[in-house]
Amino acid sequence: MENTKRLVQVFKANNYSLTSQREKILKFLLTKDDHMTIQDICTELDDPNVSQATIYRNLKLFLQLGLVNRVNMNSADYYEMSDQEASSHFHLTCKKCNKIIEIKDISSKSIEELIEERFGFKVTKTDIVFKGICSECKKKEEDNV
Questions:
Q1: Please, are residues 130 and 91 in contact by the beta-carbon 8 Å criterion?
Q2: How far apart are CA 82 and CA 80, in angstroms?
Q3: What is the pLDDT of residues 45-101, one digit of tens each?
Q4: How far apart are the C-alpha atoms of 17 and 69, rounded to whole Å?
Q5: Of 7, 21, 78, 118, which is least packed with CB atoms within 10 Å of its CB?
Q6: pLDDT by residue (tens digit) across 105-117?
Q7: Contact status, residue 120 vs residue 93, Cβ threshold 8 Å
Q8: May I ask the CATH architecture of the domain 88-143?
Q9: 2-81 has which CATH code?
Q10: Which residues, 6 or more positions from 51, have their beta carbon under 8 angstroms from its beta carbon?
C-alpha cells in the first residue's frame, strides 16, 4: 500500500495519470525480485488488456520517472523496480548460465570519490555489471577436470 501511494504521488508530481494498465504493470513489477525483459513481463503478466507495446511505452515512462532501472546484461535489457534509497547497485552475470545476482549491500563510495576527485564529476547513482562465472558453473567446471 505504501508503494502504491508513493507511485501515485510520483505520477501526479509529473502530470501523468496512473492508468489501470500502468498500475497493473507496476504492481506486477513490485511483486518480482527478478530482473525481467519486456518479453518476460508480457509472458508472466499475461493480461489481454496490456500489450507488449503498452509495456514498452510504459517502461520508457517509468525509466524517465525513476521508478524502474534498466540494465543491459547478457545482450538484453532487463528491468527492475528502482530502489530509491540505494545509490549503488551491482550485478554479477554468469557467462555460462546467464544467472544474474544482484548486490545492494556493497558501497561504491571509494570509486565515486576517485571519479569526483579526478574528473570533477559528481556521481549520483552507480550501476555496475561484473561478468564472469558463478559458483555453480565454476564448481561444474572443476568437477569435469
A1: yes
A2: 6
A3: 989 999 999 999 999 999 999 888 888 877 888 898 876 555 567 888 888 898 888
A4: 20
A5: 118
A6: 666 677 888 889 9
A7: no
A8: 2-Layer Sandwich (3.30)
A9: 1.10.10.10
A10: 42
